[in-house]
Request: fold
Amino acid sequence: MQLGFYFDQSRCSNCLTCVVACKDWHNIPEGPVFWIRVLTVEEGEFPDLDVSFLPVSCYHCEEAPCITECPVDAISKRDSDGIVIVDGDACLGREQCGTCLEACPYGAPQFGNEPDAKMQMCNLCLDRWEESKKPICVEACPMRALDAGPLEELESKYGVTKEVKGFTLFERTRPSILFKAKG
Reply:
């Protein structure tokens, strides 16, 4: 089984509730680390301008390049659910390494400002899954633009759209995310 995300681009209002909920739930201090971010995608020129939004986090890729590039095996993929996890104790940190950040086409690996900053990223709220709850970003979204679950179930519920405005699909990584495009 592979867990993944679904994002309805037509519903997101860029309220950033998912971002705040994530930082709060995981006790991520103020600063540059965001396990989920929301990008603004602008297309066109005034007066024909279109604005869309796109959440960016770890997409728990089936073939995650961060795993293969990590020289100390600090990143792994759980067999039971496909969640990519990080062993912060084994990580060499950005100053000594940082190859995971270079390898990830989605910019998921995050590092704090401290000199010995270790890599961290979205773990799909493992603690919440163990309690049969969805990730905090999904629960917090007031527009219900996010969902998470087994990829096969998400595909049967929402379809198999893998591309929307602002998202570049890298076939070799096979990210575990599905979309509904903005109309």
The mean pLDDT is 94. The domain at 3-180 is CATH 3.30.70.20 (Alpha-Beta Plaits). Residues 17-25 form the longest helix (9 residues).
